[in-house]
Amino acid sequence: MYCCIHNAKHLEAAVDLFFEDEKIITMTPCGHQPIPDNCLLFDATGLVLMPSFIDAHVHLREPGFEYKETIESGLTAALYGGFGQVMCMANTNPVNDTAAVTSFMLQQATTSHPYGPTLHPIAAATKGLAGTELAPLGELKNAGCVAVSNDGRPLASTEIMRRVMEYAADFGLTVIDHCEDPTLAPQWIMNEGEVSSRLGLKGQPVVGEALQAARDIMLAEYLHLPVHIAHVSSALTVDVIAFAKSRGIAVTAETCPHYLLLDDTALEGYNASCKVSPPLRAAKDRAALLKAIQDGTIDILTTDHAPHALHEKLTSMDQALVGFSGLDLAVTLTWNLVRENLLAEDALHRLWCRTPGQIFHLPTNGFAPNDPADFFLFDPHVTWVPEADNLYSRGKNTPFLGQELTGRVKHHWLKGRQLF
Ligand code: DOR
Question: Nearest residue CA, atom 7 of ligand 1?
Answer without folding.
Answer: 152
